[in-house]
Amino acid sequence: MKYVLAFAAALFAAPVWATSVAPKPLEELVREADHVVVATVASVGMVDGRGRALTDRAARTGPGLANRMSFELKIEAVLFTRAGALPPRIRVPLWPMWHYRLGTMQDEVAGSRGIFLLKGAPPKGEGYQPVYPAGFQRPLEEREQIERWLPR
Question: What is the reported pTM?
Answer without folding.
Answer: 0.84
